[in-house]
Amino acid sequence: MKTHAPPREVIISVQHLSKIYKVGAERVVALHNINLDILTGQVICIIGTSGSGKSTLLNQLAGLEKPTSGKVLIGGRNISAFTEDQLARFRQRHIGFIFQSYNLMPAMTALENVQMPLIFRGVSKQARNKAAKRALKEVGLAERMRHKPNQMSGGQQQRVGIARAFVAMPRIIFADEPTGNLDTRTTIEVMRMMVRMSRENNQTLVIVTHDREIAEYADRIVTIRDGVLIEDKLNKSLADRPEDEQAMLERETDPVRQQEPQGETGATPSSPEQEKATSELEEYSPEDMREQRSGQ
């Protein structure tokens, strides 16, 4: 695998960020003086146990909560000072979300769910239909476009969620415990998919998790404990490690594969998302989306 050039531009800058909640007469310090710069195209994992402050930090990065003090800058703009309307417009244009519980609209098909961010951006029906189809093919769901969430497995629903997050080519993707409801094998597929897609488009991927194995897919791991950033280190992403090393680690973390006989076996078939589906249809290309993004 080719070595990825280190990203240069700071896309997210967290400066002296603190968040304090008032619970009755008590003051609960959720975040204390966090300073953090995140680079364009970086895959970064914020890891911590339950109650560590990692979810609060994610909410601050995404502009879902206001800080008690300090600020968050995205692309040099202080989103902590934005009004709710400004934040909503900003998120529509620049941010995608991947959720643990998928957050799909149950009455809509996969295709319709993926189109949602493009509807909010005012993209034409024809263009968003092409973009959504392309995104679903990219995540290996070309045959599931007309299925509703209750007709799909958890892994398939999360792939729809990934397609929805990436379809509008946002600059930043926030993934909150993205594999929390998935089995081991599906977790591996989903993590590889997210890392690959973010790198192909030089998008910043911010993953929040409590799982050390998930953190291994990041280029950089930030650990938070009791609202304080205690460690910030670079990491050799599992997605960049040799295939034989990946296979070994996957066997160690997959109890089903651990029980498989070690006799003579054939080649492991590639997963659907590892082979891009081809189509005779004219597609709305990523280049088109980049041009739309640069013009905003």
One letter per element, helices H and strands E, the order comes to EEEHEEHEHHHEHEHEEHHH
Which stretches of 5+ consecutive residues score pLDDT under 50? 256-286
Order of neighbouring strands in the sheet with most strands: 6-7-8-3-9-10
Looking at the structure, the CATH topology is Rossmann fold
Description:
By secondary structure, the protein is of the alpha/beta class. It has a single domain, classed as 3-Layer(aba) Sandwich (Rossmann fold), CATH 3.40.50. The protein is built from ten helices and ten strands. The strands form two sheets. It has a six-stranded mixed beta sheet with strand order 6-7-8-3-9-10, sandwiched between helices. It is globular, with a radius of gyration of 20 Å. Residues 256-286 have low confidence and may be disordered.
Task: Write a compact overview of the structure shown.
This protein has 296 residues and is an alpha/beta fold. The protein is built from ten helices and ten strands.
Keywords:
six-stranded mixed β-sheet; globular; four-stranded antiparallel β-sheet; 10 helices; 34% helix; 24% strand; 296 residues; Rossmann fold
